[in-house]
Write a structure and sequence with these properties.
The complex is a heterodimer of chains A (84) and B (276). With 84 residues, chain A is of the alpha+beta class. Chain A is built from three helices and three strands. In chain A, a hairpin with a 2-residue loop joins strand 1 and strand 2. In chain B, a hairpin with a 2-residue loop joins strand 11 and strand 12. In chain B, helix 4 crosses helix 5. Chain B contains five helices and 15 strands. The chains are: A alpha+beta (84), B alpha+beta (276). The interface between A and B is medium-sized, with 16 and 20 residues.
Chain lengths: 84, 276
């Protein structure tokens, strides 16, 4: 089961980049490429295997790399307090 | 029996408000400061305004919207507004600066709801169209505005030509989307230039990302950079998800619907006016 995005965050994809506004912390986060795809996957409630298969379809990475990138990025999101 | 003083009617960005002041001193202060911004339309918002003691701390206003009630609170003002009826009570320290801060907070919230925004920017009027120059403190908004208006330094002995552009505001400008285009309204909110402003509405020609430099130069703006700066320059004191989403949506709409460019400008003269 994939982690959940914290409540009270506003996000939109604009000009190819994904912008996340964390009003409570007065912070703006910007994501692009695989990171944006992962975030949108989490936002849509997709499972980790599904997000990995989308990363494989969209970017030239091996399954091992995709899995490792996803784990690393989820760790960063957790540290930033953006996911539960 | 004493006659109740007439309310002060205020309007900018097409949003009118009426203020009832039981105290003549408070009324006089506000009426004088905003006399160039009378309401043309019937006001939807109506406030009873009372003076209270209070210091500016905390300086940053807290804006909360809950169950149809809007609360705007700072050390020197406290406002509760019923959003269904448009009626509210404002308690504020008897100072023009306090009332101005309240208006800025209130209009920043109201404009986001209306698809617009209050932007930290310099606004110039040239050829009947408005240009906005985005920048936070120190970016050069006031410098650029003074150059555009040819405001001489007090010690300057050099004669100055007539202004090449009218300054709409050197600090905060009001933007709305109307009839398929973005427009800029006359602003009563000023920075260093301390003007009173005037009412008006003008089509938005261009938005510039401002940068101080050794020479004047225009270049293309990168969308990501423009949106990042827009969000930083957009005044929003609310921490609600809805308001953050509105800020993102409105900024994205402005990015899509208006022309953006980078302006590097020198503080030597107003030569940048020939480039915009």
């Amino acid at each position: 089961m994939a982690p959940k995005i914290r409540e009270n965050l506003a996000f939109r994809r604009v000009a190819g980049e994904l912008f996340i506004v964390d009003a409570a912390a007065s912070r703006l986060h910007e994501l692009n490429g695989p990171a944006a795809l992962i975030w949108e996957g989490l936002a849509a409630g997709k499972s980790e295997p599904r997000i990995i298969s989308e990363l494989l379809a969209e970017f030239e990475v091996s399954e091992k790399e995709a899995r490792s990138d996803l784990r690393e990025f989820l760790g960063e999101l957790s540290k930033s307090g953006l996911i539960l | 029996m004493t006659a109740r003083p007439a309310p002060v009617f205020f309007e900018t960005a097409g949003l009118a408000a009426a203020f009832d002041f039981p105290e003549a001193a408070f009324r006089g202060l506000v009426a004088r400061r905003y006399e160039k911004f009378p309401a043309a339309a019937a006001p939807f918002y109506r406030f009873s305004a009372l003076s209270i003691p209070g210091s500016q701390a905390p300086f940053r206003p807290a804006v909360r919207e809950e169950r149809g009630i809007l609360r705007l609170k700072r050390g020197d003002f406290d406002c509760v507004l019923d959003l269904k009826t448009g009626s509210g009570v404002l308690k504020a320290a008897l100072r023009v600066q306090t009332f101005d801060s309240f208006l800025r907070s209130f209009y920043s919230w109201a404009l986001l709801r209306e698809g617009g925004m209050l932007l930290h920017s310099a606004g110039l009027l040239k050829g009947g169209k408005a240009c906005l120059f985005l920048g936070k403190s120190g970016a050069g908004k006031s410098t650029l505005s003074k150059l555009a208006a040819f405001v001489p330094h007090p010690s300057s002995l050099i004669p100055h030509p007539s202004p090449g552009a009218e300054v709409i505001s050197d600090e905060l400008n009001l933007v709305r989307f109307e009839k398929g285009r973005f427009v800029v309204y006359g602003s009563p909110f000023w920075g260093e230039m301390r003007n009173e402003g005037r009412q008006g509405v003008w089509p938005l020609a261009k938005v510039f990302i401002l940068k101080k430099a050794k020479r004047n130069k225009i270049s293309a703006a990168v969308p990501g950079e423009a949106l990042r700066l827009l969000l930083r320059c957009l005044m929003n004191f609310s921490k609600s998800t809805e308001t953050s989403a509105a800020a993102l949506d409105n900024a994205a709409a402005l990015l899509a619907g208006a022309e953006f460019a980078r302006l590097e400008f020198t503080n030597k003269d107003a030569g940048f006016l020939n480039l915009i």
